[in-house]
């Protein structure tokens, strides 16, 4: 009896120890299977208490049944815990029901003996659960702990089932209790090993992840040992870029820390190690780079305490503040601009930090709408604006997709408002923010009504146009067509709606079938380009080709989808008229060319008649006058000759025209060998109204130089230039003759040649000047 009591107490103590151990671990690690194991082993201890009372205390035999029931429930909790450990979830209700149902089958076999039936149910159920759990642990979980626990549970399950067969043997019953003590301890050891192996693997994965994140960070991640003398025992590779030191240089030299920080900060680290200094978890520090440059860093740090309760190390992050200081100063200068755009805007806006989901700034319009005081909504968690968690979670999903989100918000007095929230993601200083604009849907409903009215107005305008208008979506399908377009193409509007435009109205032209890859409209739609005033062919319902002048523009809808608008008009009549006009134009060109040719011939005939008449005259003023007149008429004839030769009917190139005319004047003059003529003429387009006056003025001035210059004993030199000077054209004729004796009174003379020059200058709306400069220089300017 005493031995059985000792064995029972040992088993109870072991089970309770396990129960409290799992419960303690649960409070630190929050794993659900630990709670299930704690309850299971606690119930197992309670079952042993009831069983011991039933066999040791007279009159307490009925407690054996209670012990069986508690053992049954204990097996359920232990099995559920192992299932959750392996698969990460609780077993399904169907699985538990099936297992419980199967274990009642042996109970039915012994239904004539209720006590035996209850024992059969409990032992077979518990044995089956332990057996299955043991096999599952051996098969599915790696590690020594799982193999120890799996083997122990498998053996324990077999023994529980066999115990039913040897229940009447007192010697075996004592051995069974001792075996239970052993298996409880072995199972407990295996389960604890299994749990800590799992924690070790998770910790190793977390450590590896943290190490990768640390090495990829742009900021400096560091660890400082405070004892016996502060030194750096870890630093990330970003230190090379920011400070110039490689991690190896810093870690191999324990004095590197004292070179990077000043003496005051080093002394403070020593005081921290002795727990005698104020521990600032965040501050701004100056670090000295390898090149001697002093840089500012924002330090965030955490202390690690030793067994003596004093700090023994420090880990932290150092962020470069050099560029941020400049950015801060720039932002400070732009504060007034920020206030104007953000704070004073009538559009309700706020800025939310994504890490904490708190509002860090809101403008006056938003504060007023949500009935907050002037201080605003800063520090408020954005969840407080939503009626439910579902709305809040849906809003977070919409921010990731960049879509507008409609929902109900609540005001501080409980009033509900319908709003649309638009969000834009942005990053600054290593943190993510979302910029949110809020629209009151009460006013939105009014705007929607107004928008509907505007759409109807636009549809009416499009329907009233004489030009065809077709709307095409990104797949080339027609979603809108006005009456004019349908009439030109020979369709009813309903016949073309929701049909592919390429397959119905733009699949053929004069050269034959147009492949889809060669469709200019589809290509413009895909590329986002436009078509301007292009002549194309559209296909009539009867298969005929319609020449059209089309314009095509692409745009994006509210859903950010491409759409296109095709505007065209039938140009059949225009092409016919154009052909008639071109024919008429060709006829007119021919007539005008013939006219120039005949005018030139008439001038030539007049010159010939005058030349014949001059030959009969003796040398006299009359003959000289006739010769000068002939030269003037030839200048005019030359204009028509060039127009005839160049096929131009209104303009002449100044260079070819003037140089040819000057050459003709030189050849026609007496003593041409004694005259040196030079030119500097730019090629400028001249109209007929310019060409003839310029030619006559040159003719008159050239003739005057021949008559009056007389630079004996030198040869006569005449220089003629024509150029563009800004908006003016400048004609200059100069000679090396004697010049004018009385240049002041020359303008008042009324000689025939002078009158011609003045008249032609007025015709050009220009002005002419005369000056003696190594001879006579005449300058004509006109626009």
UniProtKB/TrEMBL annotation:
Q: In Gene Ontology terms, what is a biological process of this protein?
A: regulation of DNA-templated transcription
* SUPFAM superfamilies per record: ATPase domain of HSP90 chaperone/DNA topoisomerase II/histidine kinase, PYP-like sensor domain (PAS domain)
Coiled coil (UniProt feature)? 568-602
Q: Which PROSITE patterns match?
A: PAS (PS50112)
Q: Which CDD domains match?
A: PAS (cd00130)
Q: Where is the PAS domain?
A: 206-251, 454-497
The UniProt GO MF terms for this protein read: ATP binding; protein histidine kinase activity
For this protein, what reaction is catalysed? ATP + protein L-histidine = ADP + protein N-phospho-L-histidine
Q: Which UniProt keywords apply?
A: ATP-binding, Coiled coil, Kinase, Membrane, Nucleotide-binding, Phosphoprotein, Transferase, Transmembrane, Transmembrane helix
Q: Where are the transmembrane segments?
A: 9-27, 33-53, 65-86, 92-110, 117-138, 144-164, 176-196
Q: Which InterPro entries does the annotation name?
A: HATPase_C_sf (IPR036890), HATPase_dom (IPR003594), PAC (IPR001610), PAS (IPR000014), PAS-like_dom_sf (IPR035965), PAS_fold (IPR013767), Sig_transdc_His_kin_sub2_dim/P (IPR011495)
Q: What is its EC number?
A: 2.7.13.3
Protein name per Swiss-Prot or TrEMBL: histidine kinase
The top of its lineage is: Bacteria, Pseudomonadati, Deferribacterota, Deferribacteres, Deferribacterales
